[in-house]
Predict the 3D structure of the following.
Amino acid sequence: MKSWISFLLPDDEYKEKKMLYFFTEGAIILFLSLIVMMICNKFFNLDTETVLLAAIAIFLFYVTGRYILAGMEYTDIATKHAYKKELRVICIRTIGFVIIFMALYLIFINIPSSLNNWVEILGLLISVSVVSFLSSYISLKRSYKKNKELL
């Protein structure tokens, strides 16, 4: 069945079904969190922007977390050699991101003028890189374990 959301879903039928479950679970958690925030708004003064940002973050973190922990991203990783090769690719991708981000930052934004600005940009860059690497690594590890069990 085709829908306007089909472009977000993978072509693999199993992955598509799991993703639909994740989106549905995320939507239910989003709905419940909005009800909780509506009740909390009677006791605390919550900004509209804060509530909307929190709701979007809850949905995105839940769906992304479930996808990472499901271990279904790397379907072809079942041997130790393939696992190590894909881990190398993840490391290279992370290092490439760091280099490209830093180069583009220096070209378009400019060279930071103070130590504080350097710390801010490097802190952001390191944080994003670590989160990206860990999410890919966890997904790879889970996929490898799951695929190894299926063999």
Q: What stands out?
A: Residues 34 and 64 are 19 Å apart (CA to CA).
